[in-house]
Fold this sequence. Notes:
Shape: globular
Largest sheet: 7 strands, mixed
Strand content: 15-25%
CATH class of the largest domain: Alpha Beta
Number of domains: 2
CATH topology of the largest domain: pyruvate-formate lyase- activating enzyme
Order of helices and strands: HEHHEEEEHEHHHEEEHEHEHEHEH
Number of helices: 12
Structural class: alpha/beta
Amino acid sequence: MDYVKDWDKSKKRYEAFYQNEIIDRCLCSIKTMSDKYVPSPTPDIKDQKAMEFVWTDPETKFHRQKNFMENTLYYGDAFPFVDLAAGPSAHAALFKGVKCMYESTVWFYPVMNDISDEIVFDENSPQYQNVLDCSRYAAEQSKGRFCISCADASGNLDALAHLRSSEELLVDLLCEDEDVITAQLNKIQKVYEKLQGDLFDIVLENNDGGGVIGWLDVWGPGKTSQLQSDISVMISNDLFKKFVMPELLRQSEFLDHCVYHFDGQEQIMHLDDLLSIPRLNAIQWTGVTGQPPPSHFIPELQKIQAAGKGLVINTSADQIEPLMTNLSSKGLFLKIYVGSKDEAEYAFKLIEKLTRE
């Protein structure tokens, strides 16, 4: 593995993380940019043709990522990877008629006028072939020197919100036939399994037999990916049980290891249900802008650990001490944002010092 010193030891720490254990210290990923880093040029978002090229051309996408990797300083268990993001719940783009808008992320234009409208997966669509082409190109160029993160294809209810629009779907969940919505979600689940299966076939060997959740800096043995339901911050727990839990159970059974993306304090009302998923390995706690930092939620974080689930916490260096003094280092993974080499070294030494069972 390029750019890192002891990837084999880090893999052992990741493997221990999924067992809620530690090898020698808390699992952590700390990264900062070198002074020489010059970001790859990005077109004006008004030039959608140029933006689409940046997002979809395999060679361009790869070399932009390579520029970032070459200028990143890696600490702890951080590792280099090509991030093949294609927008959140990207499997929504694989249905006929879907058009995309490219910015700092990818947005999808709704295509359903009614929740009962037929949605058709198109395996021969340019979008589907592009996701595979980008993955194949990255694997050919990498040859194990860095990992490859698959497209962010998770969250079936989120994908349905892309196809229908969030506003319309929220009304549908309250007013429309449950069986109709469930049937649409089942169609999306089949597309999820097809896409994920094809992508894992391309990247697993390159990734030392593992999967990567790029934006979380997470590696895991076997088919590893995230689960999510961002739209669940806007629905009741009853609706979560009815429409979201079935997909989370199915996807957790499809994967070898999985981490749920817990996007904001509004999802606390669903926490007990999440903790009941037998094959869910960990919950990733996001510090959402405008909400308190993770250390404000120590009781909830302790509850997650007490249920035997791991924790992935995206946070800043000033949160290391309050988190590590109140949580077990077993099954704990800290992803730390820092702005300099000195901050990175300080954060790493503090994590070593505070590691405890």
